[in-house]
Amino acid sequence: MHAADLRPEITLGSIRPPQRLAPFSHAIGLEVGGEDNPDIVPTDAEGDAFGRLILLHDPGAEEAWEGAMRLVAYIQADMDDAVAGDPLLPDVAWQWLNEGLEEEGADHTNLGGTVTSTASVRFGEIGGPPRAYQIEMRASWTAEGLDLAPHVQAFAKVLANVAGLPPEGVTKLGH
């Protein structure tokens, strides 16, 4: 998982995996524009976009998962109001995951999940911006094969998209 080739704006590091979901597990955290120390990747972050990708390995789950390795993904990102207000945002975000898995050659089965777009309005003496918008994706799929780098790379592409990063090789005008 750590051998994945990621764009420079995304940091990757190990995080504590869940202990009771499978006999064996490993987890990584990815963040856009995070810590200066690449070895520190939080499980939750204050800004922009972050995600967790958890590998569950259970030799006894072959039938339920249609394989022994299940990947569980979580992404959370702040959005601007123009993007967050688009009613197609959840569909587009889900398509980014499907396309990323296909483009990276991440062979998989049993893909499922949810995409949630939220708007929060703060009142009274609570800190933070008066209005905030977020997208959250939860997904899982069964990895086919042992090479997990393509799965991590696909996940990182979704993270880059929800963070609003330009496509690789494209520079924003005025920067």
Write the layout of secondary structure elements.
Blueprint: E1 10-15, E2 24-32, E3 49-57, H1 62-65, E4 69-79, H2 81-84, H3 89-103, E5 108-121, E6 131-143, H4 149-162
Antiparallel strand pairs: 1-2, 2-3, 3-4, 4-6, 5-6
Helix pairs in contact: 3-4
Plain-language structure description:
This protein has a six-stranded antiparallel sheet with strand order 1-2-3-4-6-5. It contains four helices and six strands, in the order E-E-E-H-E-H-H-E-E-H. The chain is α+β, with helices and mostly antiparallel strands and about 180 residues long. It has a domain of about 120 residues. A hairpin with an 8-residue loop joins strand 1 and strand 2. The two termini are about 30 Å apart. About 5% of the residues have low confidence. The longest helix has 15 residues.
List its salient traits:
alpha+beta; 175 residues; six-stranded antiparallel beta sheet; globular; 4 helices
Number of strands: 6
Oligomer: single chain
- Give the terminus-to-terminus CA distance: 32 Å
Tell me the β content.
35-45%
Globally, the shape reads globular
H/E element sequence: EEEHEHHEEH
Regions with little confidence, pLDDT below 50 for 5+ residues: 41-46
- The gyration radius over C-alpha positions equals 17 Å
Major beta sheet, strand line-up:
1-2-3-4-6-5
